[in-house]
Amino acid sequence: MSSPDTAAAELPTGELPTGERPAAQAAVPRRPMDRLAERLRIYRAPTILGLSGFGILFLGWLLLVIGPARGTIGFDAYAYWAVSPQHPYATPLGDVGSFTYSPAVALFFAPVHNLVFGAFYLLWAGFLAANLVWLTRRYTFLWLAFIPVSLELYEGNVHLLLATVCVLGFRYPALWSIGILTKVTPGISLLWFLVRREWRSLAIALGATAAISLVSFVIVPGAWFDWAKFLTSSSATGPVENSSYQWLIPPLVLRLAAAAALIVWGARTDRRWVVPVATVIAMPVLWITSPAVLAAIPMLRRPRGDATAEGEPLSASAA
Length: 319
Hints:
Blueprint: H1 4-9, H2 23-26, H3 32-39, H4 46-70, H5 75-82, H6 103-109, H7 117-136, H8 140-143, H9 147-155, H10 159-168, H11 176-182, H12 191-195, H13 199-219, H14 221-233, H15 252-269, H16 274-281, H17 297-300
Helix pairs in contact: 4-9, 7-10, 11-13, 13-14, 15-16
């Protein structure tokens, strides 16, 4: 058996034994395309590839076939584009262009009316798609097979934005003002801070909401009174919402109680993923697109401080 010195001498000139290679030579930087190929390797699995293909085809069918035939592309986004900040609730509930969010949100969207609707929809849908990509990472195409997500991109609601709020709201509590000033009932998620006695986060969330509301009230005070009237009488105006499956959905008061109980349990057991689930349950009106908020779950099931995870579901032990 040759000695280590003899083995080293038998190597070609200038070549070091494997264990003695310089770090710069051993760790060769991977090219961006190599990293992308590695991340997309999951799509070699037939099930994931098939579901992803279905999702892409379904979204394409909505955008290229159903939308042009029925004129319903960006049905919800149209309400954001067409809203009048002075009279946001002039359109009856359920009609095309019906706006249901707070006057503060109406003021936010007011400048976009300077664009043609098609341009606004492309920008808004692109923003929602960016939220989806950030939330689901390399599983984005797979999530398109989840019908509420594809329909969300087609109709242009705010559910994917609320999913992002569910994730970032733990670190930046002021973002919860988005949920409160749009759908109102997502504000029940603030119970998380209350149960865990995170008073600073709770104060920031409520303070940001109050500050935005106050500024908008100064600008359009009448719209706030109109919104209060709209919220208290909306069940009696316009067409009946969810008429085709209303009998399947419990009353809002029961759903709010269930959402509150879920959040209290999640806060006590440190299960952040319950927040998007509770947000969906507490929605004032449950649309088929509402479960798109659940796209926040993979990110919230990642271990705290794990910056390398790609949003894939974890085992129950990580919950």
